[in-house]
Amino acid sequence: MKRKKIAIVGAGIVGISSGIYLAKRGCDVTLIDKDFKGKPASYGNASWLSSPSITPVLMPGMVKKIPKLLFSKDGPLFLRFPGFIKIIPFLLKYLTYASKNKVEHISKNLAYLLKDSVNEHKQLAEGTNATKWIEDSPFLFIYKNKNDFINDEYTWSLRKKHGFKLIEVEQEELKSLVPGLSSEYKFAIKIDNLGYISNSQNYLDDLLDGFKSLGGKLIQDEVLDISEKEDLVQVVGREKSVLVEDIIISSGVYSDKFAKKFGVKVPIQSERGYHLELYETDINLKYPVMNGYLKLAITPRPKGIRFAGLVEFGSLNSNPNPKAFELLMRNAKSMFPGIKFKTKQEWSGHRPSTVDSLPVIGSSSVNKKIHFGYGHHHIGLTGGPKTGKILSKTILRDNEKLDIESFNPSR
Ligand SMILES: Cc1cc2nc3c(=O)[nH]c(=O)nc-3n(C[C@H](O)[C@H](O)[C@H](O)COP(=O)(O)OP(=O)(O)OC[C@H]3O[C@@H](n4cnc5c(N)ncnc54)[C@H](O)[C@@H]3O)c2cc1C
Q: What's the pLDDT tens digit per position in 192-238?
């Protein structure tokens, strides 16, 4: 039987997941990436399989907090000049999505995409060595006092509405759950039955090996253009061109230029994020910890701790901001006073953030052979496998009814 020939542009978590599901269904799949060792967002993230992350960054009432986030000494929000000037129209539109009814729409749809994400990853990784990097774990959301948690009531009410059970943790228990944590933090919320990836590079490499063992092919090349050629799709790379029956565009923040050509109008920008990984620390972190004051997710690693977060707009074409790394180090030391480590790693990369905080998943309205899977902002690792599954079902025209209208590329 003739195998359907499919190309996927971008081997982040979305592209790899799509590739695995399509290869499992017998398709002839080629993953094209400009650099398979390029450490994109799928590598440098906080590695949380965070099903409760159903609320957008911009919540009702946040607009008036922006000056403090931006201008206080340890504020987690950065704007980079001159890039920031160009994206002002995007930011103005982005601010309009902070109303209650829009946030509830976003949460409802993200809840569908992010549901049961640990099992989605286990299913994706089944039969590959990648399974060993998926850790079951609770998450801890730390607060300086219970009042601050109560002030976050709206976010938590949305999580509760979508089925998450909150367990209150008082100071003594918190000390034993997070050894070395500053005594400033006296309260936490725990959510059980979640998980994280303990080693992102090994996880992505092992998934890629799994893809190859299903017959998937890799081409390392930068895609420059995508065009229609008779009944097929031509993918023009810097080094070579390929002809395929269907294509998925999953090149993260760089998907935009191809997507625009095929009718997508959803604005997207980079929300640059940063991580600092400390190796051989004297603190043995057991569980992922979220620090909402610093907008930081802290994750156990095989040999240390990763501190990941911050938001920077306007820096897609700039170098990483040294001030962000200094801030991460200050934050690490303020959360874990006296922390010792032997070496460190600094990383920065781009979250693909759409103006309405919902990803773009589905087929082009102008050419049904062109499909999109990008724009997952802060939740792409969590939602990558489900996105890949949805795209494989879309391309292979399964009869299953998928609840994906709000991710429609033509919205
Ligand atoms: C600091 C930080 C912390 C985060 N924490 C979490 C978290 O804990 N949990 C979570 O779920 N999400 C998290 N995220 C978000 C998550 O990492 C992203 O949403 C996700 O990785 C996006 O995956 P992707 O596959 O769409 O894109 P990417 O991972 O960006 O991959 C895109 C790929 O496309 C390739 N590419 C681009 N252009 C071309 C081209 N023209 N030709 C060929 N190849 C091309 C790139 O080389 C790259 O490999 C975090 C992000 C950051 C920055």
A: 999 999 999 999 999 999 999 999 999 999 999 999 998 999 999 99
Q: Is 298 in the pocket of ligand 1 (CB under 6 A)?
A: no
Rounded to two decimals, the pTM is 0.97
**Ligand 1 near 32 CB (within 6 A):** yes
Question: Among the atoms of ligand 1, which is closest to the Cα of residue 309?
Answer: 1
The answer to whether 323 and 74 are in contact (CB under 8 A) is no
- When pLDDT is averaged across residues 54-82 and rounded to a whole number, the result is 86
Pick from 272, 274, 268: which is nearest to 90 by CA? 268
Query: Which are the contacts of 186, defined by CB distance < 8 A and separation ≥ 6?
Result: 143, 144, 145, 146, 170, 171, 174
Which overall architecture, per CATH, does domain 5-407 show?
Answer: 3-Layer(bba) Sandwich (3.50)
Take atom 16 of ligand 1 and give the residue whose Cα is closest.
380
Would you list the domain boundaries of the chain? 5-407
- Cβ(355) – ligand 1 distance below 6 Å: no
pLDDT at 66: 84
